[in-house]
Specification:
With 191 residues, the protein is of the alpha+beta class. Strands 1, 2, 3, 4, 5 and 6 form a six-stranded mixed beta sheet that branches. α3 crosses α4. The longest helix is centred in the C-terminal third of the chain and has 18 residues. The radius of gyration is 17 Å and the shape is globular.
Length: 191
């Protein structure tokens, strides 16, 4: 079942505020408390996510697969690096798959980096579909496996980029989008 943009915005409003009135308070806002409850519910089923990561490693044996999940984001995140091995060699991109804990949706995006020498990832740039050729195969596999494993619908880029009047961690209106509210406010921050 595909949710409308209005339904997704209503869901986002349940977990994020339209003001900063709790910013300097010690107690949690009602929205933050609801997000914490939602995370506790999601983490009770973390074995399903771990099984997904194991299956993804089998589907992409030539890639390094990791878990990029971090709270208070609103999703489980997997990260796929272009080269397998330890220590990780320098890389110029990462593909990230996100499954929202707030709505039955997912998104796949990429992060491209500039480099200085062979160790530093600099100037991250977010990429959505269409992906460049190197990212396309892992992105397609991630999307297929997420749909098979979780039965969720893909959130199209256009809808993900819909502005929302909410404060999501460090992202504030008018920059805040449905992507930030339903997935992550720091898409570039990946391990």
């Amino acid at each position: 079942m595909s949710l409308s943009t209005e339904q997704l915005l209503a869901i986002a409003r349940t977990y994020w505020r339209a003001d900063k009135s709790y910013e300097l308070r010690q107690e949690k806002s009602p929205e933050a408390a609801r997000l914490e409850v939602r995370w506790n519910q999601a983490l009770a089923r973390v074995d399903r996510w771990q099984a997904f990561l194991r299956e993804l490693k089998q589907e992409l044996p030539d890639f390094t697969i990791g878990d990029g999940t971090a709270t208070p984001d609103a999703c489980f995140r997997c990260v796929v690096y272009p080269v397998k091995g330890r220590p990780l060699p320098p890389f110029d991109w990462i593909v990230v798959g996100c499954v929202s804990i707030l709505a039955p949706i997912y998104i796949v995006y990429g992060v491209e980096y500039g480099r200085v020498g062979n160790r530093k990832r600099l100037n991250p740039r977010l990429r959505f579909e269409p992906f460049p050729s190197g990212m396309r195969h892992p992105a397609d596999v991630i999307a297929r496996k997420i749909e098979e494993s979780f039965g969720v619908s893909k959130l199209p880029r256009e809808r993900a980029e819909t502005p929302v009047p909410l404060f999501v961690q460090w992202v504030e209106p008018p920059e805040t989008t449905l992507f930030h509210a339903l997935f992550t406010n720091e898409p570039h921050n990946v391990p």
